[in-house]
Amino acid sequence: MQMNISQLRPRILVDVSKIDMSTTILGYKTSAPIMVGPTAMHKLAHPEGEVLTAKAAAACDVIMGLSFSSTCTIEEVASSCNAVRFFQLYVYKQREISALMVKRAEMNGFKAILLTADTPKLGRREADIKNKMIAPQLKNFEGLFSTEVEDSGGSNLEAYASKTLDPSFAWKDIAWLRSITKLPILIKGVLTREDAIKAVEVGVEGIIVSNHGARQLDYVPATISALEEVVLAVKGRIPVLFDGGIRRGTDVFKALALGAQAVLIGRPVVYGLAAKGEYGVKRVINMLKDELELTMALSGCPTLSDITKNHVRTQLDNRYCRM
Predict the structure, then answer these.
(1) What are the catalytic residues?
(2) What is the four-CA torsion angle of 115, 240, 107, 80, rounded to 10 degrees?
C-alpha cells in the first residue's frame, strides 16, 4: 500500500469519543467497510474450509464473498449461518455451468454477483508451476465435470483453467448475465478509467478495483495506485469497492479516503483460517476493525463520511507541492 500514498493528514481537536464504522453495501448493513473477498479453495487452509470462513464473517457482522472455486458447496455455506453473502462468478466455456451456479446462489439467498472479469486466461503462476499445483475436485461441480486434467508437467490448475475459462466473454455478454439473474452485478478487476466508464455504461451496480492479487499480469499498478483514477471516472454513479494489499486498518483508511466505499480482504483471511480456523478469521477481521477505529480517532474522523481525500497525501500531490 506504499506505492501511491506517502502520508496521512490527521485533524486534531475533533470529538472522537464515539466512532461509528457501520455502513451499507448495496443497501445491506454491515458493521464496518470491510468484506471477506472471494478466495478459492479454503479447504487447502483448513479441513472445514469456507463454512468456517462464513461463520467468522457472520460473527463479525461483515459481508462475505464466496468464491466460484469454493471447496464447500454453495448450499453448505448458505446453511452454515444467517448472514449477507455475495457470490463470485467466472464465466466458463460451458456457460450453462456458470448459469447453474448463479441460479444456485440466488436460490440460496446470496445477494449479489461479483463477476471476475480479469481472467480470460489464467496468469502465469510460476510458483504453482514449480510446485506442480494440483487443483482439488470442487464439490460445486460434482456430476458436471472433473477438475482432473493433464498438466503437461506443470500446474494442474493452469491446465484446468485453460480447459474451462471462456476467453470470448466481453462487455456485450453482460446482457446474457442480466438475462439469467435478478441479482445486482459488480465487476471485479477494473484498473482503468476507460473500463470504469464502460462498466457504468453497461449498467452494472458496482465496480471492484482489483489486480487479482497481482497474480494475473506483470507490471499492472498496485490497486491503490489505480483507485483514484477509477473513482474520478465513476463520479459517484455506482459504488467502487477496493481489493488488494489490505493488511492494516490504516490501509482501509487510505482506500476510503481515495473514494472506496469498502475494501475486500483475501490473503489475511486465508492466513487466519490456516492458523486458527474460525477463531483465526474472526481475529483477522476484528484486528482490522480495531485498527481502523483507532486510525479514524487519531485522524479526527468520527464517522466514515468524515474521511475525505484531504486526509491523505499521494505522490502526485507531493509533486504538485514541489512545483
Answers:
(1) 212
(2) 100
DSSP 61-73: T--EEEPTT-SS-
Distance, CA of 265 to CA of 280 (rounded, Å): 14
173 near 92, Cβ under 8 Å? no
SS3 112: coil
Residue 20, beta-bridge partner list: 303
**Cβ 97 vs Cβ 145: under 8 Å:** yes
Phi and psi torsions of 318, nearest 5°: -65, -40
Burial tier of 125 (Cβ tally within 10 Å: 0-12, 13-18, 19+): middle
> pLDDT tens digits for 62-101?
999 999 999 999 999 999 999 999 999 999 999 999 999 9
292 close to 62: Cβ distance less than 8 angstroms = no
Q: Which residue's C-alpha cell is 514449480? A: 130
| pLDDT (0 to 100) of residue 4 | 57
Q: What is the pLDDT of residues 239-277, one digit of tens each?
A: 999 999 999 999 999 999 999 999 999 999 999 999 999
Set of cell numbers at residue 7: 502520508
Distance in angstroms (rounded) separating the CA atoms of residues 250 and 7: 11
Q: Tell how strand 85-89 and strand 312-314 pair up.
A: unpaired
In this structure, what are the phi and psi dihedrals at residue 132, rounded to the nearest 5 degrees?
55, 55
Q: Which three cell numbers stand for residue 4?
A: 501511491
Yes or no: say if 40 and 67 are a contact pair by the CB < 8 Å rule.
Answer: yes
| 8-state DSSP, 250 | H
